[in-house]
Amino acid sequence: MRTKLMTISAIIFALALFRLLPHWPNVSPVAAMALFGGAYFVDRRMAFIVPFVALFLSDLFLGLHNSMIFVYTGFALTVMIGFMLQKRVTITNTAFAVVASSVLFFLLTNFGAWLTSGLYAKTAEGLMQAYVAGIPFFQNSLLGNVVYAAVIFGGYHLLQKNITALKEPALKP
């Protein structure tokens, strides 16, 4: 159990480090971290704690902003989407979870930008402008989520095939 816990945690913290490296705007492993934690930590507390600590530590380096509550809410909801993958990690299920979490994150964070930034009128039209302005970022976000999720879910699957200790549950509830 300890090997699996440490391996999953190490993967999530390694993903958080990728946020600190130069990358295209919004092409980051944020959703992949949350989905992976939700999918593979048996203890739901750890599924939230480890990814949130990794996210927060990387945010300390990247900078904090006034709409972070929307980012962290989207992150928490993505962990919960990951819960639906537990014991059902397939290419199809994971792809659906990546797309669903990407859309949810887009809707939530652009709503937050509309509400807190002062860039948009507080009207339905202003909200639509915020969503339209976010489309290029959504495309990049979806790309990053797909690539990072494919690498970590696929890589972890290969590790599980070759390391017996990773086949056991990580922290039983």
Return the structural class. Answer: mainly alpha
Q: What is the H/E string? A: HHHHHH
In which range does the helix fraction lie?
over 70%
What is the number of beta strands? 0
Give the biggest sheet: none
Instruction: Look up the CATH topology.
Output: Arp2/3 complex 21 kDa subunit ARPC3
Strand-residue proportion:
under 5%
Instruction: State the low-pLDDT regions, or none.
Output: none
* Overall 3D shape: elongated
Continuous helix count: 6
User: How far apart are the termini?
Assistant: 12 Å
CATH class: Mainly Alpha
Secondary-structure arrangement, i.e. CATH architecture? Orthogonal Bundle
Tell me, rounded to a whole number, the average pLDDT. Answer: 91
Supply the number of structural domains: 1
Radius of gyration: 16 Å
Explained architecture:
With 173 residues, this protein is mainly α. It has a single domain, classed as Arp2/3 complex 21 kDa subunit ARPC3 (Orthogonal Bundle). The chain has helices at 2-18, 30-40, 44-62, 68-83, 91-116, 124-162.
List keywords for this structure.
173 residues; mainly alpha; Arp2/3 complex 21 kDa subunit ARPC3; 74% helix
